[in-house]
Amino acid sequence: MRKKTFTLQQIYKEGIERLREAGIKEAELDAWYLLEYTTGITKASYYGEPAKEVDEEKALEYLEKIRIRSTRVPLQHITGEQEFMGYPFLVNDHVLIPRQDTETLVEEALKISYTGMKMLDMCTGSGCILFSMLKMKPGIEGTGCDISEEALKVAEANRKRLEVNAKLIQSDLFEHIEGTYDMIVSNPPYIRTAVIAELQDEVRLHDPWIALDGKEDGLFFYRKIVCESGQYLRKGGALLFEIGHDQGEAVSELMKAEGYSDVRVKKDLAGLDRVVIGMYNKE
After folding, report:
1. Strand locations in 27-177, DSSP E?
2. Cβ partners under 8 Å of residue 70, min gap 6
3. Quick check: 262 and 233 in contact, CB under 8 A?
4. Which residues of 226-261 are buried (b: 16+ CB within 10 A; e: fewer)?
5. Residue 95 CB: number of other CB atoms within 10 A?
6. Would the CA dihedral through 168, 230, 188, 138 be positive or negative?
7. How many C-beta atoms surround the C-beta of residue 169 within 10 A?
């Protein structure tokens, strides 16, 4: 029996249409990413020869990925990868998908980092913050911790993939942390519990709840980290948080109350409050 024939253009258009029917906002973009991922095609090759035939097996594989995406499974969970700070990070449903907003935290941390410093990444997840820092600022001694054993498996895979030297610890916040650091960075769970149900399905149904839930007011983990961090920071050490767009003032006040000085809020590319930075003075 003769195999069915498919062209790149045919399956791409079919992919777009199916995603649109499913209500996927960026249907055309997601359909392209899945085409690129499945067939290895580049945009230049596609536009140069859109009528090029595709192997039936590859075409059906592509359309199956389109079907999965139409059920609101995140694109990154289908491809297993997300770029962050220019580096390819492995992801799955045990870690938050690295987001561009979080790059603001890395950029601010890089500004005050230096060779030889000791850095702790609290709630490391995929390791995207820590490993990006280590790639961009060689000579930092980095440690990442997370309560989730499964998240740490992903982080370890990324550590090996990016070939960085870092220590990973399973710890409920500071429970198993020892010694002192020059910098602590954290993107903790900060979404109010009641708000999680209102998030888009890709986040609500597929991101790990433990990495989203900041309890009743969203500030639970900021309070705990700020309160305990002084025991693990050297004098003049820095604490940097990613925050929700409406949490800048509240987190700043928590840090000032615990003896942090030069507390400031940085905005992301969208102009929203995204990072709070403070310096610890033991006196």
Report:
1. 53-54, 81-84, 87-90, 118-122, 141-146, 166-170
2. 18, 19, 21, 22, 24
3. no
4. beebeebbeeebbbbbbbbeebbebbbebbeebebe
5. 27
6. negative
7. 15
* Closest residue by Cα to residue 213 from 187, 192, 235: 192
Closest by CA to 170, choosing from 210, 124, 134, is 124
Residue of 192, 164, 188, 169 lying closest to 239 (CA atoms):
188
Tens place of pLDDT per residue across the chain (283 aa): 456 778 999 999 999 999 999 999 999 999 999 999 999 989 898 888 888 889 889 999 999 999 999 999 999 999 999 999 999 999 999 999 999 999 999 999 999 999 999 999 999 999 999 999 999 998 999 999 999 999 999 999 999 999 999 999 999 999 999 999 999 999 998 887 887 787 777 777 777 778 876 788 889 999 999 999 999 999 999 999 999 999 999 999 999 999 999 999 999 999 999 999 999 986 5
In the block, residue with structure tokens 């090029």: 52
Residue 148 contacts residue 208 (beta carbons within 8 Å): yes
Q: How far is CA 225 from CA 15, 34, 92, 187, 277, in A?
A: 45, 39, 26, 11, 13
Q: What is the DSSP string of 27-63?
A: HHHHHHHHHHHHH---HHHHHH-TT-EE-HHHHHHHH
The amino acid at 222 = Y
- Residue at 213: amino acid letter: D
Q: Between the CA of residue 190 and those of 152, 174, 187, 245, 275, what are the distances in Å?
A: 20, 18, 8, 10, 12
As given in the structure block, the two tokens for residue 140 are: 């930092």
Q: Can you tell me whether residue 142 is helix, strand or coil? A: strand
Structure tokens at 71: 């059920």
Closest of 167, 127, 178, 123 to residue 148, by C-alpha: 123
